[in-house]
Amino acid sequence: MSVGSAYAEVHRVTRREAKSFAYGIMVLPREKRRAIEAIYAFAREVDDIADGPLPADDKRARLAALHTELETISVASPELADRPAWAIALADARRRYAIPLDALQALVDGGLQDLDQQRYGDFDELVGYCRKVAGAVGLACLPVYGAEGEEPRARAERLGVALQLINILRDVEEDSGLGRVYLPQEELSAFGVTEPDLAAGRVTDGWRRLAAFQAERARGWLSDGLGLLAFLDRRSALCVRTFAGIYAATLDEIEARGYDVFDGEVRPSRRAKLAIVARGLLA
User: Fold this and answer.
1) Cβ partners under 8 Å of residue 38, min gap 6
2) Vertex 70, ends 69 and 72: CA angle to 5°?
3) pLDDT band at 283 (very low <50, low <70, confident <90, very high)
4) Using CA atoms, how far apart are residues 274 and 279, in angstroms rounded to an integer?
5) Residue 52 DSSP symbol
6) Across the strands, what pairs with 119?
7) Model pTM?
8) Which of 184, 156, 182 is closest to 240 using CA atoms?
9) Contacts 24+ apart (CB under 8 A), 59-68
10) Which end of the chain, N or C, is less surrounded by CB atoms within 10 Å?
């Protein structure tokens, strides 16, 4: 497969799977957009393995193999021609933007953690997981945006964690079906919410209080993470502002539903997403 064909495939994956992310990266210049799509396609590969139907031991073996494969794709070369599209595209993107290997490997570590840990005792423990599966995405994207330094790194990581916290609140029912409860156990207990409540989709007063607490905390992390915008060029900032705005709109919808995340998909409409893009363009 050629590099061009690989980028075309990761673009298709992003358009098909990235319900919010794709609206942000569409405003980037072509080379930056393609690099972000390569990162996304790799993250999608990790998720598909971790959440897929294979036996747990097979999942571990495939995820462990990704660690090794990442070390071999530092540059695009003829030897990559028989690799998956994400590997060919990511190799080229790493050559252009020096995407950090440790951030990509952290994504794999997060996939492995999903196989071995399905409950989190407290929020600090949950944040450690979120840094792997989402904060690492922010760190991987940072060189593509063109920012460097400790503060941009910290902001990008916090932004990634914020988006994952919103995903966790939105996807409580789906995750429960996979046997995973990401909401901290001590917080479930404090608000009087049980795992059977989550599995049954009970919108109790305790659930509403817990969900409001989770939403407010996610907004705080999102606000902190958006400090990244000060370090970005206009189009990169527009990209980040757009997908962050879509996630904020998801929180708005959750709140408008009275925190009932169990009754159908909770996502802003396509029209609402395009309106967020338009507002960014006019800002």
Assistant:
1) 7, 10, 86, 89, 90, 92, 93
2) 65
3) low
4) 9
5) S
6) 181
7) 0.90
8) 156
9) 59/111, 59/115, 60/112, 60/115, 63/108, 63/111, 63/112, 63/115, 64/108, 64/112, 66/108, 67/105, 67/108
10) C
How far apart are alpha carbons 238 and 97 in whole angstroms? 19
Tokens of 79: 């030897």
Domains of the chain: 1-116 (no CATH), 117-283 (1.10.600.10)
- In DSSP notation, 226-256 reads GGGGGGS-HHHHHHHHHHHHHHHHHHHHHHH
Query: Which pair of structure tokens corresponds to residue 148?
Result: 């460097």
Residue 281 is predicted with a pLDDT of: 62
Tens digit of pLDDT for each residue in 31-67? Answer: 999 999 999 999 999 999 998 889 999 999 999 999 8
Residue 122 identity (one-letter amino acid): D
What length is written for the chain?
283
Decide if 33 contacts 97 (C-beta within 8 A).
no
Name the token pair of 98: 């020096």
What six digits make up the tokens of 152? 């941009």
- Please name the amino acid found at residue 108: V
- Percent of the residues in the chain that have a pLDDT greater than 90, as a whole number: 68
Residue whose entry in the numeric block shows the structure tokens 């193999």:
65
Spatial CA neighbour of 70 closest among 53, 57, 84, 49: 84
Q: Which residue is it, tokens 């708005």?
A: 252
Integer Cα distance of 55 and 74 in angstroms: 30
Give the CA distances from residue 139 to residues 2, 78, 95, 254, 279, in Å, rounded to whole numbers and listed in that order.
27, 28, 16, 28, 26
